[in-house]
Amino acid sequence: MKRWRTLAATLLACASMAAGAHNFHMGIADISYNAASGSTEVVHTYTGHDVEALLANLYQRRFDLGQEDSEAALRRYVEKQFYLVAPDGKRLRLNWVGMKVNADNVVIFQEIEHTRLAPATRIHNQLLIDFLPSQRNTLNVQNSGSIQTLIFDHQNTELPIR
Amino acid sequence: MTPRYLPLFLAALFSATAAHADDIFQRVLVDGSRLNQLGVADSANAGSVTQQQLAARTSYRPGELLEAVPGLIVSQHSGEGKANQFYLRGFNLDHGTDLRTSVDEMPVNQRSHGHGQGWTDLNFLIPELAMRLDYKKGPYAAAQGDFSSAGAASILYANRLTQGIASAGIGQNGFRRALLADSFDAGDGSLLYALEAQHNDGPFTQPDRYHKLNGVLRYSQGYANNGFNVTAMAYDASWNATDQIPLRAVQDGTLGRFDAIDASDGGKAQRYSLSGAWRQTTDDISSKVSAYVIANRLALFSNFTYAMDDPDNGDQFAQPDRRVTSGLEASHTWHRHTDRGSSDTTIGLQLQNDNIHNGLYHTRQRQILSTTRQDHIVETSIGVYGENSTRWSRSLRTVAGLRADAYRFDVRSDRAANSGQASDHLFSPSLSVIAGPWRETEAYVNIGNGFHSNDARGTTITLDPKTGEAADKVTPLVRSRALELGLRSAAIAGLQTSLSLYRLDFDSELLFIGDAGATEAGRPSRRYGIEFSSYYKAASWLSLDLDLAYARARSRGSDPAGDFIPGAIEGVAQLAMTLTPRGPWSGSLRLRYFGPRPLTEDNSVRSAASVGLNGRLAYQIDKTLRVELEGYNLANRRDSAIDYYYASRLPGEAQPVDDIHFHPVESRSLRLTLVKNF
């Protein structure tokens, strides 16, 4: 998990450098089942610049991502644009664990307590996609051994897992 | 690297090295309250004030929020509720002439206004909704038209609030204020509401009894850069006014500093607006359309000369103004990206129509005695502009613009001789060259033409309605020309400084005639000025602001009367300290120096300086509850908010007397506010 996050952060940093002021926008998320706790953990990584621009355009003011009010504002947005729907059509309860901010990225932690994702669970991921038309979110699901990669973009905002 | 990362990595490496030129996307420093404008602003004098800084300001009245613009002074010469008095860059801007102000993309200046050209009544402003204040000084931006020669300030309201606000304030001199504001999801968008009620008497012998009710309702969808909003606003206020009083009467003990002479002075104001804005932004283009309809109604009773013209009834006069202003603004920008830099080309259209009924009446105790003049004015304008901003290399940018404005004035006066139509047009080119940044320092050269419109009634006048004598028409659109050199630096960590040197010429100066209560087109003028502005984030918990400005304003052409411009501001200074330590306490102190001004053209009479010290102390009780104590004029100085020099006659005086007339700054007062977030 830690290795994956390091890689994700590196990739996003590369993307930032290559893309100058972000003509290309990307985000990475990782969903994995933690056998020790019995919970499913979700980790999102987005570039700080994109998240700042998102909040600035949502609230018409600048946010310092280290401040408490920015976490509340971002949480409200994330919980609206990212959710999981069980095969029976019910939304899974996704807890907000917290967020970390470094010089380049924002890392958001969520979890679904005491739950393992059932096959055919649908993932709705419109994070930043509603804001940036060229946003692409790569999501890796590690539920039972093999890793499944889903790509979310303007055309694909809700996809099922195997 | 596993194959599933490869496409991502390749995409990252080979993605276009494109840059969003839209300012919405600019990477800015957010650790300071003033945004770092390096690489962003087109002149050293331009800036953007964040919501955090606006919230930390101590403002006696909403219009004082504009004092976040370095070098700008906002004061009051009458009762609360009347438009404020503004000073900037060597101008006494009267009630807003030559300072273009907009709130939420709606113009605030009222042209051909009953009391003063460019009347800027900001009392409908709700500071808690203000998310950003952008300012520019000088006529160097093609998008800014009428009234922007000294400067332009734009306040943007929120589409959403991060938390609801319930605020209750109480203070000395009859101050009471309550505010409730929140936003919530509605349909596919968000609904924001704000309700404000306020009462204030001020320190005056006859209480102002300023009472206002104010509301905002906004629906928005999407984002500021991709979305739309529709907003309704309503504001209603009434007040008594303590107008300026003669110094001689205070010095001989006949009047107290806070006494009024005509107790029936005062007014009522209403403002209702419906506006909408739509904006679309992609990597290559951005488009914006906004439209508004504003209904304003003002009743204003003033008496500046007391009993000079009519010893029996007194000189009170009424200047009612009722208008509907409608307008549309549209702009489209193309962003082009090259290997070396980028280029933005913007075209814009601005349409405005004012349907105005105003007049000038001689009154007593607010009852009309006679009509001096009464007019129905239709003033229509169209402005089109094009502007190109190009970054030629890492160290060179240019901004070149051309603006064309055409005005049509249709005046139907109660005297046929003063009725008629007039029209005028002019072109305003502008050019800015920006070199740098080198070591976090940029240099600017700005050159540009601007203008202000004159009162429509002056464009068709033939007979002075008061004397019946022949009167000259005024030039409808008056040209200004400006040149500026600037420097901005953030070379020292935490310190942002800017320095501007400018020259500003006007073909005709708009002057406030104190004893007539009107503005008059005057002589050509020239101003030289220097401005220094700095913001220092000394520590994470301490920031310091220092703004200094000096201007030399003179009329051009020889006239035995002299070449000083009455009321023109010279020196201004502001020193502010904001403390935000960890823990529940925070505070700020702000010292404002408003230097002496010439009050006559020969400079034989000058005003004294005004110095104000305001402070704010806040305590965060818990996560959602805060208490704030604000203090105004903490040194309790007995200065003037404004001074004029003209002749007046008090009841009982045999002859009119030339004298200084002043309005006092409010005495020391405290306000306590409890703020609950939900």
Could you say what the CATH topology of the domain at 1-18 and 27-118 in chain A is called? Answer: Alpha-Beta Plaits
| Structural class by sheet pairing and helices of chain A | alpha+beta
**Helix-strand topology string of chain A:** HEEHHEEEEEEE
Write down the Rg of chain A: 15 Å
**Spatial order of the strands forming the largest sheet of chain A:** 4-5-2-1-7-8
The major beta sheet of chain B can be summarized as: 23 strands, antiparallel
Q: How many distinct helices of chain B? A: 4
Would you state the CATH class of the domain at 1-18 and 27-118 in chain A?
Alpha Beta
Measured between the Cα atoms of the first and last residue of chain B, the distance is 48 Å
Q: Please state the second-level CATH architecture of chain B.
A: Beta Barrel
Tell me the distance between the termini of chain A.
21 Å
Please write the CATH class name of chain B.
Mainly Beta
Principal-axis shape of chain B equals globular
3D architecture notes:
The complex is a heterodimer of chains A (162) and B (678). The longest helix of chain A has 17 residues, at 2-18. Chain A is an alpha+beta fold and 162 residues long. Chain A has a 6-stranded mixed sheet. Residues 16-22 of chain A have low confidence and may be disordered. Chain A has a domain at 1-18 and 27-118: 2-Layer Sandwich (Alpha-Beta Plaits). Chain A is built from 3 helices and 9 strands. Chain A has helices spanning 2-18, 48-59, 68-81; strands at 25-34, 39-47, 82-85, 95-101, 105-112, 122-125, 135-144, 146-152, 158-160. Chain B is mostly beta strands. Chain B has a single domain, classed as TonB-dependent receptor, beta-barrel domain (Maltoporin, Chain A), CATH 2.40.170. Chain B has a 23-stranded antiparallel sheet that branches. Chain B has a 5-stranded mixed sheet with strand order 1-7-8-5-6. The relative contact order of chain B is 0.13. Classes of the chains: A alpha+beta (162), B mainly beta (678). Chain A binds chain B through residues 7, 11, 14-15, 18-24, 26, 28, 49, 52-54, 56-65, 69, 72-73, 131, 133-134, 136, 138, 140, 147, 149, and chain B through 4-5, 8-9, 11-20, 24-25, 27-28, 30-31, 35, 50-52, 131-132, 156-163, 223-226, 282-283, 337.
